[in-house]
Amino acid sequence: LGLVNRIPGAPDTDGWLSVDAELRFVPGMPMPDVTSGHLEAGGIRVDRYSFAQSVVSDFTAASTVKNGVKVTAIESGLTTIGLAEGVVEVRDLEVQPFARGVPIKASRIDAAHVNFSSLMKYLRFAENPHVACDLDEVHFTGFHGQIDPLTFDAGLVAHTSNFAIYDGPVDSPTPSPATGVKEGHLAGQLA
Question: How far apart are CA 122 and CA 137, in angstroms?
Fold first, then answer.
């Protein structure tokens, strides 16, 4: 992904990407159809944000006509992402890369064993987080939204444990919890 750095105005990137695909191209298509594709990636970083330690996905891409409008969509039945010491599974993913706003949707997103402190470090929200939490299970249903501007909506159910706020960084030799909750259950709507 470091090759993207050679494009003027592109964000700083890092990581690796491997794609094995069977393509079909006809002049006039915005991109080739992918009849069968397999993607693997790792160490993905854009600017200062590390999004995933690994990604594995089998996918297709095709241009079709829906309601009289030509739509190009990339689809995957299952995409598996290694994130913050946990695993995220995205089911029935669809991205329309050339549509206004870059619409994205998935029938279900399931995350397990994601470490909140590690997530804050990877995403560079906090180099030394003072909050710890184990995201044991997080489930999003009916996930949909767009990338530009970034907006998402989905049903949310989560089970967490070991939530604590410390008086110093969680990875310090002797962190002292200021307050905490042994376990939590969340249900609602992400909007």
Answer: 19
- Dihedral (Cα; 90, 111, 144, 156), 10-degree rounding: 150
* Whole-Å CA distances, 102 to 80, 94, 149: 21, 10, 9
Q: Where are the beta strands (DSSP E) in the chain?
A: 13-24, 33-46, 49-66, 69-83, 86-95, 103-115, 131-146, 151-166, 177-190
Of the candidates 149, 31, 152, the one whose C-alpha atom is nearest the C-alpha of residue 101 is 149
C-alpha–C-alpha distance, residues 50 and 9, integer Å: 19
From residue 168, alpha-carbon distances to 14, 61, 176, 179 in Å are 30, 48, 7, 12
Q: Which residues pair with 186 in a beta bridge?
A: 158
Which H or E run contains 118?
Answer: helix 116-122
- Distance CA(166)–CA(112), nearest Å, equals 24
CB 15 within 8 A of CB 54: no
Which distant-in-sequence residues (6+ apart) come within 8 Å of 38 by Cβ? 19, 20, 21, 57, 58, 59
Query: What pTM value is reported for the model?
Result: 0.86
Candidates 51, 52, 58, 146; CA nearest to 98 is 146
pLDDT tens digits for 28-50?
Answer: 777 889 999 999 999 998 888 88
Over residues 113-122, the pLDDT tens digits come to: 999 999 999 8
